[in-house]
Amino acid sequence: MASEKKQVAMTGNEAVANAIRQINPDVMAAYPITPQTDIVQFYSTFAANGLVDTQMVTVESEHSAMSATVGASAAGSRAMTATSSQGLALMHEILHIASGFRLPIAMPVVNRAVSAPINIHCDHSDTMAALTTGWIQLYGESAQEAYDNMIQAVKIAEDPRVRLPVMVCYDGFITSHAVENLVLVPDDAVKAFVGEYKSEYGLFDFEKPITFGPLVLPDYFSELKAQQSDAMLAAKEVILEVAEEYEKISGRKYGYFEAYKLDDAERVIVVLSSAAGTTKAVVDELRAAGEKVGLLKPRVLRPFPAEELVKALSGAKVVAVMDRAETFSTQGGQLFAEIRSAFYEASKKPLIKNYIFGLGGRDTTTSDIRKVYEELKKDQERGSVDRKVTHLDVRV
Amino acid sequence: MTMKGYKDLPEGGVIPEKGNSVLYKTGEWRSMRPVWHSEGCVHCLMCWVFCPDSSIKVEDGKMVGIDYDHCKGCGICARECPRKEKALQMVKE
Amino acid sequence: MASLKELSAIPEVLAPGHRLCAGCGAPIVVRQITRAAQGPLVVTNATGCLEVSTTVYPYTSWNTPWIHNAFENAAATASGVEAAYQALKRRGKLDKDVKFVVFGGDGGTYDIGFQSLSGAMERNHNLVYVCYDNGAYMNTGIQRSSATPKGADTTTSPVGKLSYGKRENRKDLTLIMAAHNIPYAAQVSPAHWNDLYQKAEKAFAAGGAAFINALAPCPRGWRHDSKDTIAICRLAVDTCFWPLYEVVEGKTRVTYKPREKKPVTEFLKAQGRFRHLFQPGNEAILEEIQKEVDRRWEELLALEEISNRQGETA
Fold this sequence. Notes:
- The structure holds 3 protein chains of 3 kinds.
- Chain A is an alpha/beta fold.
- Chain A has 2 domains: 2-250, Rossmann fold, CATH 3.40.50; 257-391, 3-Layer(aba) Sandwich (Rossmann fold), CATH 3.40.50.
- In chain A, 40% of the residues lie in helices and 17% in strands.
- Chain A has a 6-stranded mixed sheet, sandwiched between helices. A 4-stranded mixed sheet of chain A has the order 5-7-6-13.
- In chain A, helix 1 crosses helix 2, helix 3 packs parallel to helix 4 (85-100) and helix 6 crosses helix 8 (221-250).
- Chain B has a domain at 41-93: Alpha-Beta Plaits, CATH 3.30.70.
- Chain B has helices spanning 46-50, 76-80, and strands at 32-36, 56-59, 62-66, 88-92.
- In chain B, a hairpin with a 2-residue loop joins strand 2 and strand 3 (62-66).
- Chain C is an alpha/beta fold.
- Chain C has one domain (9-313): Thiamin diphosphate (ThDP)-binding fold, Pyr/PP domains (Rossmann fold), CATH 3.40.50.970.
- In chain C, a hairpin with a 2-residue loop joins strand 9 (244-248) and strand 10 (251-256).
- Chain C is globular.
- Classes of the chains: A alpha/beta, B alpha+beta, C alpha/beta.
- Strand 9 of chain A pairs parallel with strand 2 (66-68) of chain C.
């Protein structure tokens, strides 16, 4: 039983570095950036002590980190990298190439605000800007979830129905640097779970040499993009299959999202990652006072599980979607826009509003969350939302 | 080449064949053509080593002709030929 | 020393049917360099003329495994490919000895790919990076690069009432690469095919990072007749505009010294991109260009002299 397994105390980054140690990829090309840095440090130490035999490429930038990872993956090896914030932004061009090449790269992204102003702390502006790059995105609340997502990401990415890269996102400092108790899956179980990597194509078959990355003009471009879109759709199914399989070795359940006290909830917060933990504490407190409140914490943003989210939220009267990143559309955050759009065809729609919060690492406390639930209650009584988009914690 | 449907294309835009550009005839671009006179040729292979289009046919270390399907008529071979018009000559198409 | 007869027996890496312009220098460089690999070879290609013209989907001109990632990252991509090779070999999943070559134009090498190239050279990956230097962004329509010679007329350094073309001297990338203290760096010209072939052999055998800068005329951008590609390469070498040399483990050796050093105007006159320099009023510019060629040639000879002296004392 999972509950009987030995707990260890680790930071999020240490847990993720250990997941990668257990996977022991062929190639790891990475560049340091706060708050991702100690993944690379831990991993270099594992390599220096023979705990892994991965070929390390200590590149000179994140652009080269992703470029080398693409090269290594295209060559036919299991290749990884890791990044944050500016690093992800610098990789951006090659993110599209990794997915367009259908390379199953699993990459931790430790969420951090993108400059300017420069800031090293958490928000989701980095990965939100990468939603259209063709990568699968998984978000985790805790070190445990980051670890579990990391291992599942490899299996999802490499599934022949998918063959797409995956970002494993978790919150900078809050999750990456805080020490938590968690349970690791035994090394040999992880090894068996991810299995030997078998690539579709490689660059070392000299009998049947391939051309990888040719110039594709309008006569074929759309077809290749349609394939990619199909693969993303297939990932929806594969993500659940992999979760089910992972439950067998870990005892922990995963899906598209976590529904927390949602069944009869009238007022619901939708929020990603670590802020969900804070929200759970408030939900518990308000539930004890008889309030019908709940939480939905998305885990998978790409592919976007629109139907499932609509179904899960259809019983709510008012929903607050909380975005930890601005879009500057003046119409709210990205998660808000997508969830609201998902309800367009629904016969039963809750009131939906948006809060932008926690930018640049601003702490989101239980009193902030309490305030949101209080405002939702007023909205519910009034039968309309007072404001579509609110910056939760900005001084005026 | 027949146009395949999207589900039948190799993933990621990979071309799983080698050198199939031979099917594409760049010889049609030519306005001047090199003409080879075998009797004047000393088989020094200067034409071959400088050809941008892999279009000088060599067998057993000897020049045996020109691949007109692909030769674009750049004229480097004739210009670099030490035997000049005796072995290689550019003429209008 | 291999004869052309012997070289012609080695299978062609670049198939015909590619869509590079008639008389392009790049495929000549590719054909000559790749012969020296003698065995399994993986090619990485930066975005550029060579890449787009040899792989118009669903056609490819490559007879060996080939990858293109983006413009500025060919060296980083090849670093990853080579790392995968090391890993798979160590783990017993591959038993062949494989060679790696990268081709990038001067835009992808001197400019946008400079950082990734520097990184790959410093990390000493076992690969040969070849720059086919045609001295401008030819693929996008002849824009100036840091490899464009002073005085050249390009679409972003155009000749006009107030302009004589590019005002700046070209970057000396070969020496910059040699300054990475890599096992092998060299400058070559396809006109001197034998010198090129020997250098390529050394580069593939270097056991670490090697850099080769290859002159590759562009008839369209240089504005010369397509038949003159090789003749102009010869002029570049004989005027010492493009010296042939190598730096092996830090030791410089000039591999070809023209018996009679020709004035640089011989090289310039052959190309339309310098035609305006021969109009009255531009004599001073021609003089400056000659002075710069002389200075660099003297510097190179001095480096060779230092290397020779070090050899004597060692």
